[in-house]
Q: What sequence folds into this?
């Protein structure tokens, strides 16, 4: 049931995303939502990167379990124990504290840079798009998970470099996502149960928003622009929502998990705070309510050809809030 939801349908034509907008009647869902940045800030998690002693120890080589089933210990971790390497895909090749680019939050002196050249198996290029993950140490520091009834919401400020500094390809380049618990259709484990077929089981899901470049270098776009690709609609399909980005610099991104299990996405130019008018999409990813938020993470994508660096991404003031009850 879509209720009152404005959303974008997406189809892929000649490698490009095209968008059609559908409006379902009724009151706007955006007016009823909790805007990211609302509630009690959870100081146990998140990061402003202002600590002069902030550092990251990568403990190379990184993991690539999603490709070759290799988990390489010890995994990377930040000095403040707020971030760690993904054991599934590995961490970005560059994780470092840097000076905040111009136009950032007032009084912000430092932010975090993420960049990769080997997004697949270390020293073994796949020559196709791969991604690294950088994960917030969520439930370990908080001591549990954040139930949907608390309306957990997250905000991150992301610096988009000038388009001529992006990796020269059309496709997703960066992701801001949350990890949730939901029901998914999976085959039951054990030989005895295999004949039953798929059943609904509790499992993790990873809703989020990606920044996709539509590059003029591919010959199909007259100019460089970017769009937000949302994961996912009720059928598990990615879709485009929000403004076409023609102006780079600082953007504020946010997500809210509401008690009904839906995820609400927000984005605005600048460093916030987010407003109700910055709502760009609402969905019930994969058609099942999200029951809790476990953590959040960032993706960095590249062509994984062994020589071309990903776009350089700078992130600042990552915050998590909730309406604890």
A:
């Amino acid at each position: 049931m879509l209720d009152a939801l404005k959303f974008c349908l997406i189809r892929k034509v000649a490698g490009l995303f095209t968008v059609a907008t559908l409006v379902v009647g009724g009151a706007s869902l955006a007016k009823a939502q909790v805007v990211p940045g609302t509630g009690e800030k959870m100081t146990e998690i998140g990061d402003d990167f202002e600590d002069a002693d902030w550092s990251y120890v990568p403990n190379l080589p990184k993991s690539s379990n999603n490709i070759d089933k290799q988990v390489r210990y010890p995994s990377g971790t930040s000095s403040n124990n707020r971030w760690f390497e993904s054991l599934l895909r590995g961490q970005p090749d560059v994780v470092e504290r840097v000076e905040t680019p111009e136009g950032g939050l007032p009084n912000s002196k430092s932010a975090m840079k993420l960049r990769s050249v080997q997004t697949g198996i270390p020293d073994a290029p796949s020559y196709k798009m791969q991604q690294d993950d950088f994960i917030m140490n969520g439930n370990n520091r908080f001591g549990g998970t954040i139930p949907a009834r608390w309306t957990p919401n997250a905000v991150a400020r992301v610096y988009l470099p000038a388009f001529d500094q992006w990796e020269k390809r059309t496709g997703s380049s960066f992701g801001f996502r949350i990890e949730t618990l939901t029901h998914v259709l999976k085959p039951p484990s054990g030989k005895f149960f295999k004949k039953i077929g798929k059943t609904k089981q509790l499992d993790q899901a990873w809703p989020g928003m990606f920044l996709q470049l539509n590059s003029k270098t591919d010959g199909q776009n007259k100019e460089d622009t970017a769009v937000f690709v949302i994961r996912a609609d009720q059928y598990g399909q990615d879709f485009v929502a929000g403004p076409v980005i023609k102006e780079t610099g600082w953007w504020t991104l946010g997500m809210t998990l509401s008690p009904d299990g839906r995820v609400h996405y927000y984005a605005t130019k600048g460093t916030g705070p987010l407003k109700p008018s910055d709502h760009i999409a609402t969905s019930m990813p994969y058609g099942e309510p999200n029951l809790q938020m476990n953590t959040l993470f960032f993706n960095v994508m590249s062509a994984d050809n062994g020589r071309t660096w990903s776009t350089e991404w700078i992130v600042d003031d990552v915050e998590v809030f909730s309406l604890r009850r």
Notes: Residues 1-28 have pLDDT under 50 and may be disordered.
